[in-house]
Amino acid sequence: MSIFTIVFAFLAFSGIIIAMQAVTAKPRQDLIAERLSQYRDHNLTLDEIELSLPFSERFIKPALERLGSFLTARMGKNQQIVLQNKINLAGRPYGLSVNGFEVVKVIAGIIIALVVLAFVGVLGVTALPLKGAALGVGFVLGRFLPDVWLNNKIKGRQKELRLALPNALDLLTISVEAGLGFDAAIGRLTEKFKNALSDEFAQVLNEIRLGRPRLEALDEMGRRSGVEELHTFIQALIQSEQLGVGIAKVLRIQSEEMRRRRRQRAEEQAAQAPLKMLFPMIGCIFPTLFIVLMGPAVIIIIHTFQHH
Fold first, then answer.
1. What are phi and psi of 246, to 5 degrees?
2. What one-character-per-residue DSSP string does 171-208 give?
3. Is 68 exposed, middle or buried, given 0-12, 13-18 or 19+ CB atoms closer than 10 A?
4. pLDDT tens-digit series, residues 256-286
5. Domains in the chain, please, with CATH?
6. Residue 75: alpha-carbon gap to chain centroid
7. Residue range 100-112, pLDDT digits in tens
């Protein structure tokens, strides 16, 4: 591999790292708040403020936003909605949007393509068609990896919501039975726990303070979480509110139901453990065991036939 190729790969990799940092930077609202607090007591012009920003904020991030808009413009409206729902299910990691996620996919594709090209060069492949095929395969694989990462984030977040739900319901039940209103109980929950479920309830509180009806905010939380247990709990709360049933009683019943479901899920996973252990045993343990047991016999048989 020539010096020019190494220098080009290094520069490309450095540029991609800077671009990824720009894509995963803080949301615009947080940046605006920081800028206002930083320049509130200074008489600076708009040009001076813009020139004082990092190069990534002045040039790289706007360019990447335009690239993301161009990429998403070629997507169907339904595809954008599906991707936005998946990002919401994952909890909007790093403040990603649909545009930002498409840019990340392109960046990941370029990185993996360069890695595959470097690996092919190390193997000594010089044919241009093979290098082109390696670049194509690496780019396609790199674009696929962010989708895998996003799906794993969704599964991890939903698992966190399921595990946190019984304890959260216990705290809500105790708070309401102690005399707190439901909104105040949710506030106590957000103060006590710091997890995905408390973040969802904190968003519900913010929406209520901004004037959104409580039942509507709760219903939206149940739908966007993608967790059946949480959605069922929210629907039970909505029905109790509409029918005038005491919310403390509903919380107590739902808390017991969530713990029963968690126990059943643990029993199901325990029942599946022997089946999941079967394939590693067949693939790893049994061959080694056969070698240890049958190895001496095979050696004896080989020596016997050699003497004959």
1. -60, 130
2. HHHHHHHTT--HHHHHHHHHHH--SHHHHHHHHHHHHH
3. buried
4. 888 888 888 888 888 888 888 887 777 787 7
5. 3-158 (no CATH), 160-262 (1.20.81)
6. 22
7. 888 888 888 888 8
